[in-house]
Amino acid sequence: MEPGDARKQLTAAEQRATELDWTAICAEIAADMRSMFARFPTFADRNIGVGRGAGGDNTLIVDEAAEDAVFAVLERVAGEHDAAFSVLSEERGTVEYGGSGVRVIVDPIDGSLNAKRVGLSYSLSVGVATGDTMDDVFYGYVYDFGSGEQWTARRGEGAWLGDRRLDPAEPGNELEVIGIESSKPAFLSQELLRAFDGRVMRLRSIGSIALTLCQVAAARFDGMLSLRPCRSVDAAAGQLIVREAGGHVIFGDAERPLDVPLDLLPHQHVIAARDQRRARFLLDSLSS
Ligand SMILES: [Mg+2]
């Protein structure tokens, strides 16, 4: 039995939720969101605030429209399949459809700043879990609205970029390329830069934690770290995609790497790499 599965006895409706075709459901949401973004083609169209979400960030008109697209599909799916789950989303917080034993952790737009600037990379991130922590996520989906790439993972079965299974044995290239997220210049300490000196060749900053994790999964990046604690909505799907693709993920504490709650609070820095040794190096660099 997988960790977390023993924690809660699922009802029949919750069990049905675990058996849904989550890739088809998430792909439908992504398609609806693509149409939505097409209605807001410019920076001026997207740079309209509509208040503050449950996660505390300023909500843009496209964040709100994205969340509407997410809930429209999930609510219909719950009804159609008589499936019970709860949804945790960046703007609305928790919404329950008949039970909370299965949790759908959604960031409708991870990389809202890029979305607002009509930049290259922003994503839909959906993780599905049967418990309260990262370790309990059994399905992950990330869609890149820039490249059109779809990333998926199922616990114990592997991770895919589109139809291609990601090779868990791909080692990458030591620390040639590292992704840095939450990359406000003030968060880049002299100590961190000194720790990187001579070890890390290049830094890249995409502006979406979910997509940066996916780059590690495909060994396009050798590792990544967030300079600030991240929220579970940003990382729930991506962390499973990295691990199913053979990588290693640490949320702040190397002894309990996946022991962070699935809620809207920023708890820990997220660190990922192609192996545990490099993830530990990045973690140590952060705490130096
Ligand atoms: Mg967001």
- How does the overall form come out from the CA principal axes? globular
The succession of helices and strands, N to C, reads: HHHEEHEEEHEEEEEEHEHEHEEH
Percent helix range: 25-40%
**Do you know the CATH topology of the largest domain?**
Fructose-1,6-Bisphosphatase, Chain A, domain 1
CATH architecture of the largest domain: 2-Layer Sandwich
Percent of residues in beta strands: 15-25%
Total tally of structural domains: 2
What kind of sheet is the major sheet?
A: 8 strands, mixed
pLDDT < 50 runs, ≥5 residues = 1-6
Radius of gyration: 18 Å
Cα distance, first to last residue? 38 Å
- Side by side, the strands of the main sheet go 4-3-5-6-7-8-9-10
Can you walk through the features of this model?
This protein has helices at residues 12-18, 22-39, 43-46, 61-81, 112-116, 190-196, 209-217, 232-244, 276-286; strands at residues 49-52, 58-60, 85-89, 93-97, 103-110, 123-129, 137-144, 150-154, 158-161, 164-165, 177-181, 202-204, 223-226, 248-251, 270-273. The longest helix is centred in the N-terminal third of the chain and has 21 residues, at 61-81. The model is unreliable at 1-6 (pLDDT under 50). The protein is built from 9 helices and 15 strands. The protein has 288 residues and is of the alpha+beta class. The N and C termini lie far apart (38 Å). β9 and β10 form a beta hairpin. α2 (22-39) packs antiparallel against α4 (61-81). It has 2 domains: 12-165, Fructose-1,6-Bisphosphatase, subunit A, domain 1 (Fructose-1,6-Bisphosphatase, Chain A, domain 1, 2-Layer Sandwich), CATH 3.30.540.10; 177-286, D-Maltodextrin-Binding Protein, domain 2. Magnesium ion (MG) is lined by residues 63, 90, 107, 109-110, 112.
